[in-house]
Amino acid sequence: MNITILGAGALGAYFGARWQEAGAHVQFLVRPGRARQLRTYGMHVVSVHGDVTIKDPTIVEKTENLDETDLVVVGVKGYHLQGALPTLKTLVEGGAKVLPLLNGIEHLYTLQKELGEENVLGGLSYIIATLDDRGHVVHTSDLHDIHFGPLHPSQHDVCRKLTEVSNGATMRTLESEHILTDMWQKYMFITAFSGITTASDLEIGKVRAEPSTLQAAKKVLQEMKQLALGYEIPLTDKHVAAGLSKIDTLPAEATSSMHQDKRKGLPLEVDHLHGGALRLAENIGISLPSIEMIHALIKPYERGD
Length: 305
Ligand SMILES: NC(=O)C1=CN([C@@H]2O[C@H](COP(=O)(O)OP(=O)(O)OC[C@H]3O[C@@H](n4cnc5c(N)ncnc54)[C@H](OP(=O)(O)O)[C@@H]3O)[C@@H](O)[C@H]2O)C=CC1
Ligand SMILES: CC(C)(CO)C(=O)C(=O)O
Description:
By secondary structure, this protein is an alpha/beta fold. The chain folds into 2 domains: 2-177, 3-Layer(aba) Sandwich (Rossmann fold), CATH 3.40.50.720; 181-301, Orthogonal Bundle (N-(1-d-carboxylethyl)-l-norvaline Dehydrogenase, domain 2), CATH 1.10.1040. It has helices at 10-21, 32-41, 81-93, 106-115, 156-167, 179-200, 204-209, 211-230, 237-249, 257-263, 270-283, 289-298; strands at residues 2-6, 25-29, 43-47, 52-54, 58-60, 71-74, 97-100, 122-131, 137-149, 172-175. This is 2-dehydropantoate 2-reductase.
């Protein structure tokens, strides 16, 4: 299977390296800065599941230099999605399907509108990975999961191929027949988890220790359920309870990637996650007061230092 990784950052480089290790033909489509970094320091993953170095990674800077692509895996941040659309359009015109792994949901509707519903699969990832100062992936938890699935009948074949190549790779994959609901469930969780840890500047253990702060996280989960229902996505109180149980059981020192980005002074995906929820709510005439408050508290840090 020919896979192109668009956005070879922490998440994209991790999974791209794992697929290549398992024998897939992987091309990393990158911008000049990341290309220089990869050529200087190499593509290396340090992981609790075993390190891997890709000896001669295929680094491509121009779409016209890519070999044929079956699947483009999108691993850019939400705030870079617009900039990636022209490249994605070209790849789709060449016959590729697109698997976005971003956190959030608004990108899915954007991609479907811009690229055609038949071309965009559903996907999400659970992983804790970051890049070090040489651009090597540092993967620090047991999680390295991708859930993906068809959102159009024409996508079953590419899903089957992805399952085949992933079965031999060092990662966990789940092909889901209800991927849209799964994406919303993760969206519900990440909006609460990233929102509460970033807005309070606290790791999850300290959030749990203060009942009123924990209650705010619960309200975000409930508002996300209300939003999902407004879009006919069947999230229930069980999903809210599952989100709370995750918040209850994460190690005390655990925090979200958004909170880590804030600590490092990096740009934040707050417009994509919380802002996206507010826009979706406005479209259907509902209000989400807790999410609005969390959004307002994080927004000043959006651009980083
Ligand atoms: N990291 C994690 O543990 C997890 C991340 N996620 C989600 O995955 C997504 C990606 O996160 P993460 O990997 O951490 O982000 P990173 O910032 O590490 O990587 C994003 C990469 O996208 C590249 N990029 C941006 N625009 C383009 C473009 N037009 N063409 C090519 N490359 C481009 C950036 O390159 P450049 O250097 O040129 O800016 C960067 O290397 C986010 O939505 C995040 O929420 C989900 C679960 C966990
Ligand atoms: C919750 C987690 C770590 C799982 O992938 C995540 O997506 C994030 O913090 O951005």
